[in-house]
Amino acid sequence: MSAPKASPRRVILELGTGNDLHGGDYTKAALRAVQDALHHSSLTMLRSLGVDPAAMLVEVTIGVQRPERVEAERVRASLPHGQVTVRVVRGGLDVPDPGRDDPAVIASAAIAVRLPL
pTM of the predicted model, to two decimals? Predict the structure, then answer.
């Protein structure tokens, strides 16, 4: 009889912000937020434990004012490792330009990594 599989536990949580100052591109802001979060982390723990990065469960949450305007598949494809899921929710910030229809878009990203421990 084999031992029961361990349920995945969150071992990493990284946060980032990104923006698109001109053009109102929510996907661009989301991608920049993800890259900001990634640049705050290192996967040395995984190497130390001998964990294959492809086995990571990576959960990305993006917050923007217009979630329907984020191309979640492009965000998912930007992550270098793991089994990635992306959820886009209302959040972030739009900063209007009173003289033009060109808001600055600010996105927030949370990247959680889960491992079966």
Answer: 0.90
